[in-house]
Write a structure and sequence with these properties.
The chain is of the alpha+beta class and 613 residues long.
Length: 613
């Protein structure tokens, strides 16, 4: 494989395709385990497979499954240290799959950011090769600044344009359905991480989704007061259920797929025939809006949670209320039932979850640990573990037998709002902000005040001589201040949304970043705008400029980008773990330090720039 990097790119496309597609299988068939290990730790091979138009990141992930360690133990070439290296590399590919699909050039950065601290020879040798990448300018992590493998997160599904409110998973664990504040439902392939299709039809936020046991239909509830039934094979809307007089907040479907139940802000639950689309009967009793509901596996009872701080258990054969579960001191946001129908677990705005006995209607115990509202709960199929998500940005996994917290999953940069657990109990999928994350459960003195802006000041920079300051505000303007007289000198106007970041070049130019998705460059002598960089599809949150004034680095969403201020052209990018909150440049002009919303710090080096080498 030493000649791979030199010779492979000169080969015809059909040769490349055959080589990348069959090489590893041939090694496995011939029992050449050493070559298998060597190939999958060769950075050039990994890069070639990802970049080839007929393969990509998922095909590469699948390559690591040709050999099962338990089966390979009898092979004299079996090497546990190299097997561990392959496991780590595959996990990094899983975690970075969404990033690599958007930008394949970030493979080196993802490996370095996640694997630098693993002292395994095969890993370190691969990283040394990755460091030498010279194809184009790129940002090289110089510290292990990204979440390493074995911390639980499998992959991120990202394409909604607003908050994810609800998630459901098909029984076979192959697909996820998510509902969002952007009024759409998305269907995802959980094997590849690809979006299969988008279901559009609601005119307002989608608050709840459910899927039938056979995986053929999905039901969504919306703030437009309707439910919609969708065909998951074709992506077509089958019909709309109308009848609620307010938002539909929760949806559940019976195991036999015959009935769907909806809970609404109109304080009632409706039971619908899923075959005819007709309303069967109404469940009334709550004194405030219904937030959440669940159905027992046998389809005989429904449990609803409400803003009246209670849960109610209903007999679906008679439409009668069996009993009321009281104990929460605030709104009940989530409820789930164990597969045997014996217990319900509820989550509340009071920051607790409660476990209830559905035979007696009594509260069994209250596990405590969250510091803010619990918005979603899920339970494994065996009824042994519950998973709760909270506005404290964490997920907690609880042992329902010992009644203790097992561990906490951290990584979301915003409120965690919705989730589901796989049928085998090995992973969970939760939504937060505009993303979904999949987690593996088996692994774990004030000097003076300058006044003048009409709204909050989001960013400040000071000139090198210390005489002037520039401030950016939510009032959409930039102000230039004299720090000697403490007075406003002038105002720069041009942004159409909040100004969130400002920086100053050594030669007296100001650079501003805004939520209008632009960067503007200003001449502080003439007080004029020089030019605008239309370079992000997301809000600009941080800006820094090199000391020579030739390059600007800024953050938007979870990405850092480098632009050449002389030519106005894009140079390089790096994807972080969470939205970028700040960035700065070291005196050498090529080392970048950035911070994200989760408190993580990144040290990156701009590589591949001719004049720097």
């Amino acid at each position: 494989m030493g000649e791979f990097a030199d010779k492979f790119e000169t080969k015809p496309l059909f040769y490349q395709r055959a080589y990348l597609g069959s090489l590893l299988q041939n090694y496995v068939k011939s029992g050449n385990l050493e070559k298998y290990y060597q190939t999958l730790t060769d950075f050039h091979f990994l890069m070639a497979k990802i970049q080839h138009p007929e393969f990509g990141v998922q095909a590469l992930i699948d390559d690591f499954n040709f050999v099962d360690d338990s089966e390979a133990l009898s092979n004299p070439e079996y090497n546990p240290e190299k097997a561990k290296a392959l496991d780590l590399i595959q996990r990094v590919l899983w975690m970075s799959a969404d990033i690599l699909k958007r930008d394949k050039t970030q493979l080196a950065g993802q490996f370095l950011g996640r694997l630098l601290h693993f002292n395994i020879p095969a890993i370190q040798a691969m990283l040394e090769v990755a460091k030498q990448r010279k194809a184009a300018p790129w940002l090289r992590p110089v510290t292990p600044c990204l979440t390493p493998p074995r911390r639980g997160l499998l992959r991120t599904l990202k394409d909604h344009s607003d908050s994810v409110n609800a998630v459901a998973v098909t029984t076979d664990g192959k697909r996820a359905i998510s509902g969002s504040l952007d009024s759409t439902i998305k269907v995802w392939d959980l094997t590849t991480g690809d979006e299969l299709f988008t279901l559009e039809g609601h005119s307002d936020s989608v608050n709840a989704v459910a899927v039938t046991t056979d995986g053929k239909r999905a039901i969504s509830g919306s703030s437009d007061k309707t439910l919609k039934v969708w065909d998951l094979n074709t992506g077509d809307e089958l019909f709309t259920l109308e009848g609620h007089s307010h938002w539909v907040n929760s949806v559940a479907v019976t195991a036999d797929g015959k009935w769907v139940i909806s809970g609404s802000s109109d304080q009632i639950l409706k039971v619908w025939d899923l075959n005819t689309g007709k309303e069967q009967f109404i469940l009334q009793g709550h004194s405030d809006l219904v937030y959440t509901l669940a159905i027992t596996a046998d389809g005989k009872r429904a449990i609803s949670g409400s803003n009246d701080n209670t849960l109610k258990v209903w007999d679906l054969s008679t439409g009668k209320q069996q009993f009321t579960l009281k104990g929460h001191s605030d709104s009940v946001n989530a409820v789930v039932v164990t597969a045997d129908g014996k217990r319900a677990i509820s989550g509340s705005l009071d920051s607790t979850i409660k476990v209830w006995d559905l035979s007696t209607g009594k509260q069994q115990f209250t596990p405590k640990g969250h510091s803010d509202s619990v918005n979603a709960v899920a339970v494994t199929a065996d009824g042994k573990r519950a998973i709760s998500s909270s506005w404290d940005k964490t997920l907690k996994v609880w042992d329902l037998t010992t009644r203790k917290e097992l561990f906490t999953l951290k990584g979301h940069s915003n409120l965690v709002t919705a989730g589901a657990v796989s049928h085998d109990g090995n992973w969970v999928i939760f939504g937060s902000d505009d993303t979904l994350k999949v987690w593996d459960l088996t692994t774990r003195k004030e000097l003076f005040t300058l006044e003048g802006h009409l709204r909050s000041v989001n960013a400040v920079a000071v000139t090198a001589d210390g005489k002037r300051a520039i401030s950016g505000s939510s009032d959409k303007i930039i102000k230039v201040w004299d720090l000697t007289t403490r007075k406003e000198l002038f105002t720069l106007k041009g942004h159409s949304n909040w100004v969130t970041a400002v920086a100053i070049t050594a030669d007296g130019r100001a650079i501003s970043g805004s939520w209008d998705n632009t960067i503007k460059v200003w001449d502080l002598t003439t007080r004029k705008e020089l030019f605008t960089l239309q370079c992000h599809s997301d809000l600009v949150t941080a800006v820094a400029v090199t000391h020579d004034g030739k390059r600007v680095i800024f953050g938007s969403d979870d990405t850092l980008k480098v632009w050449d201020l002389t030519t106005g052209k894009f140079m390089a990018s790096f994807t972080a773990e969470s939205p970028i909150a700040s960035c700065a440049i070291a005196p050498d002009g090529v080392t970048i330090v950035a911070g994200d919303a989760s408190g993580r710090v990144y040290f990156l080096r701009l590589e591949g720039v001719e004049e720097l080498t």
